[in-house]
Amino acid sequence: MALLTGPDRADPLDDGVTPERRRQITLLSVWLLVAFDGVLTALTVGTWFYLRAADVQGMWRGLHCSPARPCTTAGGSPLPGPVPTAGLSHLAGVVVGAVLLGSLAWWSERSARSGASAPVVARRAAAATVVAVGTLGLVGVAYSGLVFNRFDGAYATAYWYVLVSCALHLGVIAVVLAGLTNRIRVGGDVPDGTSVRAVRILVVWTSVAVTILCLVASVGG
Amino acid sequence: MTGPTTSSVPRPFRSRTLRERQGVAAGLVVGVLTAAVAWAASHVLFEVGNWGTDRVTAVTMVAWFVGFNAGVGTWNPPLEWLLGSTPGPDVVTLEVGVGRGRYRYLRFCTDHKVVGMQYLGLAVVLLGVGGVGAVLIRTQLLSPHSTFLGPTAYGDVVTLHGLCMVIGVLLLLIGPFASYVLPLILGARTVALPRLNAMGVWIMASAAACLVSTVVIGGADVGWTTYAPLADQASPAMTALALALVGLVACVVISGINTVATVVTLRARGMSARRMPVMAWGAFIAAGLAVATMAGLLLVMTLVLADRTMGTTFFVAPQGGSGELYEIAFWTMGQPLLYVLLIPPMAAVLEMAGSFARRPVFNARLVVWCFVAIAGISLLTLGHHLYTTGLSPALSGSSLVLTELFALPVGVVVLCVLGTVWRGSIWARLPLYFVYLFLWDIVIGGLSGALLGIPTADRDLHGGMVVTAHLHYMMVGVVLVGAAGGLVYWFPKFTGRMFEERTGRVGFWLIAVGIQVTFLAQFWAGAQGMPRRVAWYEPAFRTANQVSTVGAYVLTLGWVVLLWAGVWSARHGRPAPADPWRAESLEWRVPSPPPLRNFPVGPVLAPVDEDTGVDGGTSRLGVPESAAAATAPERGGPV
């Protein structure tokens, strides 16, 4: 078969993309990724409110359960009564963590853009990583403290999904922040700061998304 | 972060030997081994039965996905980033495929043309599987109570056929069009995110394997929409299918981001938004629409996976879940997806019409606005899929208006195609045949769609063969025909050889006749009242089904002949010049096939003469940017 691309005459290292153009590409790509995740988060919130509004067979939080008409789990075991609302304190902690995380990321980027040395920026990125991991831990605590199981009706299911969504967001961001810290430490990124800025956009968006999801799961219950 | 650089290497990521060994063969070995270990371990961890079987399936498929892509090298770029490494010149040279010959098509390769051909290969495989499914379906329907497949296997085949065809067509557009041709049309020397682009194709390859594996692990009788609660109740194959669709979302989003970024940032100097070819606009709008809407599919698939493997109750009505939730979330993606599939072939048809009528695209600016309108309306029209689900009657009116509104921009685009070829200096080559067939089919498919948009008609016809016929007129007669025409049109650029048109015309006529016979007969069966997705039917529908089946055989033969002509031409065809069609756009200004970096230097479009309005076009192609910068206008602002 004929070769589907021509002979290798060009310099493979020269793709004609200037550093400024590459920076634009990175930032535009991150914004598009945020847009995609924004739609996904909106749909998750929509799922919550749809199930809440539809209240199929009175199963949203088992409000219509009573001793005479007990609620059951998916396995058929009777529940003692209406599924209780999850506690708010842990979610409040997650929101505080998310806000702190976003602020730290913003601060790191500002310091990088104002010419701070690599170790300073790396330390701030490392602090953001720790906060991300800590907030992730709070989500775990919130999950372990639930007084219902994920299969105990629509509310329990939706609540579980919101927690998983928060955990996934925070987990991904923790890995990305750890990577960024490492890159700065080995001298990969501070000179042009593109990665720092791109990660800041991602982290701030994640903070917003986690805050929205936690507010929906607590206030919107 | 994503493109090659020549900067020093702070810390080499892996030995070059290991990287050189990565490829499809390594991917298959590592993927199968990882999946086998995961399968054995998950059998120990999870009790088979209830969620356990689905958990085993999920863990095995995820292990395959991770292992295969590790073997191919898909994870190298993100791992390098996390470890703080920057690819050195040797890695860039290796990844771009220099000196790798044909093996670069079986490796992680960052050359956008190679990626385009990798997507094409994957699309042909999936379309082949879907096509075999179509033949099986039509054979089952040859007689009213055929035992050829039986109802259960029939349902499984319908699911696989639908998904393979939709995904296959999607990959056909992502690969040859968005990845291969688009950068050439724009005058770019690469795509914006070459490594991400290369990751997308291998993620999709592993997802496609999950999809096809459903045949082996039991099949899922859920249809291409995989509606809940069927999706919750189907065999464990549904878990594999859901994971495959998650992989599809990743691939489409990656490709969409890459396409949008390429169009926005890498257009040739002087190519303002107004001077951008229609094909580039079509790819840009479709990619943006895909990025904006694929979240719907990701959401419903993760909810299905949660229900199946974690015991949640999103779609379990007795526990407060709702199948309607699935339908609403699915169609937020599903309806725009149909137009993601439609817009690029429309744009390709316009490019072909212009080339073979020797005229510029008629009212190109209006065409672009029509594409925007189609994309915008598609975001609002999920309602017409929900008439029969208990949608409030109050919403029927708005759904009707929005659905019928589609006719306006689609009709204008059709008129612009006609306006382009009208009184043109027609050069009747094979791609133009596909343009004419596209026009014929879109009229029939479009008018039947307008009929189905009427609530009173839709409530009666929704579950019948009229919907099947309409969908297939659009998907096969319009999208696939338009895409096939585009592939024939750009075939000289892909292969460096001319398409053998005599055999190609035989294939074309078989396809043209096959489409009309197959799907007009389905309209006939639907008008008689035949329901869709049934393996057995009343004898009254026998004649219409037999005619449709004969048509399907003819149609299949046509595709086989066309594919054969393509394979033969790629090996033995006449060598193609750089511009065999004497067309205007930039891709025809480079040799066929294009060299590694497409253009020797960044192309520059000469400015439009303000006095005469004559577009200087590409007459100054090849002038170094530094020399031309003084006279060429800077690219326009936001696209």
Task: Walk me through this protein's architecture.
The complex is a heterodimer of chains A (about 220) and B (about 650). Chain A is an all-alpha fold. Chain A has one domain: Four Helix Bundle (Hemerythrin (Met), subunit A) (Up-down Bundle). Chain A is about 65% helix and about 0% strand. In chain A, helix 3 (about 120-145) packs antiparallel against helix 4 and helix 4 (about 155-185) packs antiparallel against helix 5 (about 195-220). Chain A is elongated. The N and C termini of chain A lie far apart (about 60 Å). Residues about 1-10 of chain A have low confidence and may be disordered. By secondary structure, chain B is mainly α. Chain B has two domains: about 20-105, no CATH class; about 110-570, Cytochrome c oxidase-like, subunit I domain (Cytochrome C Oxidase, Chain A, Up-down Bundle), CATH 1.20.210.10. Chain B has helices spanning about 15-20, 25-45, 50-70, 75-80, 90-95, 110-140, 150-185, 195-215, 230-235, 235-265, 280-295, 295-310, 325-355, 365-380, 395-405, 405-420, 430-450, 455-460, 465-490, 490-495, 500-530, 540-570, 625-630. In chain B, helix 17 runs parallel beside helix 21. The longest helix of chain B is centred in the N-terminal third of the chain and has 36 residues, at about 150-185. Chain B starts with 15 loop residues before the first helix and ends in an 11-residue tail after the last helix. The relative contact order of chain B is 0.09. Classes of the chains: A mainly alpha (about 220), B mainly alpha (about 650). At the A-B interface, helix 1, helix 4 and helix 5 of A face helix 5, helix 6, helix 10, helix 11 and helix 12 of B.
